[in-house]
Amino acid sequence: MQDRLTRNINPILKDAAGNVLPVGLIDGHPAQVLNQMIAVGITILLAVAGTIVLLKAIDLVIGVRVSEEDELQGLDLSQHGEEGYNLG
């Protein structure tokens, strides 16, 4: 069983005596999984906050919506000058 533990394959952390410390769930250190889940949550929150800040800044400078006329005409034609779907 010892041969299959991740600490024997990739000894990441060691204590002062040189003994390999458990680093994950397989090695019996489930707190590391919780730490990683917290880090993922913080990353998601930072990404959402950054996106909102950038979106609001762009909205203040140039806007993120097109005019109602452009919407009624169709964005393919008003924004790109071409018909995306010729259904007629």
Main sheet: strands, sense, barrel:
none
Q: What is the N-to-C order of secondary-structure elements (H for helix, E for strand)?
A: HHHH
* Percent in strands: under 5%
Overall radius of gyration: 27 Å
Helix content: 40-55%
Describe the structure.
The protein has one domain. 53% of the residues lie in helices and 0% in strands. By secondary structure, the protein is an all-alpha fold.
SSE inventory with pairings:
Elements (H helix, E strand, L loop, with lengths): L5 H4 L21 H31 L6 H6 L1 H6 L8
Brief description of this entry?
Helix content is 53%, strand content 0%.
Question: Features of this protein?
Answer:
53% helix; 88 residues; mainly alpha
